[in-house]
Amino acid sequence: MKSYALGLAIALSLPWLAHAEDPAPGPASTTIDLKYWVEFAKQGNPAAQYGLGYRYANGQGVEQDDEQAVDWYRKAADQGNAQAQYALAYMYASGRGVDADMKQANDWYMRAAQRGNADAQYALGYSYANGRGMDADSEGAVGWYRKSAAQGQAQAQYALGYMYANGLGVQQDQAAALDWYRKAADQGRSDAQYALGYMYDNGQGTEEDLAKAVDWYRKAGDQGNAQGLYAVGYAYANGRGVERDDAEAYAWYMKAAEKGRADAQYAVGYSLANGLGVARDYRQALQWYRKSADQGRSDAQYAIGYLYANGQGVKVDDDSAVRWYRKAAGQGDAQGEYALAYMYAGGRGVAKNDAKAFELYAKAAGQGHADAQYALGYMYQSGQGTKPDKAAAANWYRKAADQNNSQGQYALAYLYYQGDGAARDYGQAAELFRKAAEQGDARAEYGLGYLYYNGYGVPKDSTIAADWFNKAAAKGLPEAQHGLSYMAANGEGPIRDLGPLRQGATGQKAASDMTGWVIFHLLMALVP
Q1: How far apart are CA 237 and CA 230, in angstroms?
Q2: Which 3-state string (H, E, C) describes 437-494?
Q3: Do the beta carbons of residue 474 and residue 465 sit within 8 Å?
Q4: For the residues 96-120, what does the mean pLDDT come to?
Q5: How far apart are CA 438 and CA 434, in angstroms?
Q6: Is the peptide bond before 528 cis (omega within 30 degrees of 0)?
Q7: Which of 219, 522, 209 is closest to 371 using CA atoms?
Q8: Above 70 in pLDDT, residue 388?
């Protein structure tokens, strides 16, 4: 199942500077009796007016009433109280007690920011950064973030780190990003803790230190940060900064998955499908894949198709497999394109259509999918869905072979042996047969033995030939069994009645006639 885990191999990434709600207005004193707040507020005291607005906004000692809160915030704001100006902006931004109006919100944020309110400075910076109620202006955002961060506002410190990390409104400076992330992380911001872990994980702004990365990821995860939870799971699954432990990986993935994180849901499904850190359970895997797929993850959509195609946790259902493969392929997912191509090539769940199969193989191959590159080469060689083109076949086989794909190595070696689509070169054939044979490809083991027996591209050596024939014969390859019988009966000499190196006994059927299909070994039994 060599390509089944690609979804887990996607690199961890920094989060977008996603919209986090502006900080809620700070609390007013509750040690003073409410009646005095009311009395002082009515006398025009701005601090009391703010305090009374806060009580109405939060239902402290009075019935919660956003409209009353806005009214008292406005009275204090009109007198220049920065806290009240920020609070009034917050109400406009969130549509509480008034119609949501980001222009009004930004006007009040500006007044409070100019009076030095750190939360307002952050909120205004965020509006500039994201074009929230105004034209986007990264440089303006950095200026306000910097003022807020200098006062120790943790959100602004994180945001400023993000701007430096990505070169937004300021020259990119990973060391500066690291410094600002650390300031916010030390105040307990989980997004900053995750970001700091990411910087250590990737050696950005500092030397790579996987152990420190995991420590920071764990701090974020311990606060319930889903990205941190997933990152710790990923570290355990891949032995990055910690000893590999599939059970620990599964536990952390599950925590992130339960928070709705799609990549973690996929990872949980993958763990269940493969028995990694948990008992294998295809039915449970399907459920978690579906949660992830419903959020649009193409690898999860592909995985569901795979389970239906192979009857794992469900009955074999080619129609459902095609439907899910199509969803993944529609997002440009190379695995989905490859699998859907195979269904078209074999007429499984859809009418057989070699031209459509060729088109989809080409899309997946163009994304570097090694099995698709091999399959595309096969179609060029056999003229399925396209005109035969041995040179094009060799080119695609070579691309697959360069990715250490054993099928591509075998197929290209075969062309070199034949001098078909590539100049005959027994030495190259031997080298490629060897690479595929070392991966356990029975046809390549037989091919390499055949070359040794006849001294084609390698020194003639019947002992080595017999060794390779034995390996292939043990896998049930008839040609190898025949070769051993011939050697036993005739001793030295060319294997005349084997004829030229053939395409393997299991290579007599076309893709559309194959049974016992396994998606990850597509066309493995076909030759080349």
Answers
A1: 10
A2: HCCCCHHHHHHHHHHHHHCCCCCCCHHHHHHHHHHHHHCCCHHHHHHHHHHHHHCCCC
A3: no
A4: 97
A5: 6
A6: yes
A7: 522
A8: yes
Tokens of 481: 């069994």
The CB density around residue 1, as the number of other CB atoms within 10 Å, is 12
Identify which of 441, 486, 443, 436 has the alpha carbon closest to the alpha carbon of residue 466. Answer: 486
Question: Structure tokens of 201?
Answer: 């994980």
The 3-state secondary structure of 87-133, one letter per residue: HHHHHHHHCCCCCCCHHHHHHHHHHHHHCCCHHHHHHHHHHHHHCCC
Instruction: Give the CA distances from residue 381 to residues 172, 429, 432, in Å, rounded to whole numbers and listed in that order.
Output: 50, 17, 18
Render pLDDT for 479-526 as a digit per residue (tens, 0 to 9).
Answer: 999 888 888 887 654 444 444 444 443 333 333 332 222 222 222 222
Q: Which residue carries 């911001």 as its tokens?
A: 189
Residues found in the chain: 528
Higher pLDDT among residues 482 and 330, named by residue: 330
pTM of this prediction exceeds 0.85:
no
The CA R_g of the chain, rounded to the nearest whole Å, is 33
Tokens at residue 62, please? 């009075």
DSSP H or E segment with residue 500 = none
The answer for residues whose C-beta is within 8 angstroms of residue 156's C-beta and 6 or more apart is 118, 121, 122, 125, 144, 145, 146, 148, 149
The encoded tokens of residue 68 equal 């009353």
Q: What is the pLDDT of residues 128-142, one digit of tens each?
A: 999 999 999 999 999
Query: Is the CB of residue 412 less than 8 Å from the CB of residue 422?
Result: yes
Smallest Cα–Cα separation from 177: which of 139, 205, 137, 138?
Answer: 205
- The structure tokens listed for 512 are 């559309």
Residue/partner pairs of 514-519 with CB below 8 Å, 24 or more apart: 514/346, 517/309, 517/342, 517/346, 517/348, 518/310, 519/306, 519/309, 519/310, 519/339, 519/342
Structure tokens at 433: 């047969």
Long-range contacts, 97-104 (Cβ 8 Å, 24+): 97/57, 97/65, 97/66, 97/67, 97/68, 97/69, 97/70, 98/67, 98/70, 102/127, 102/132, 102/133, 102/134, 103/133, 103/134
DSSP 524: T
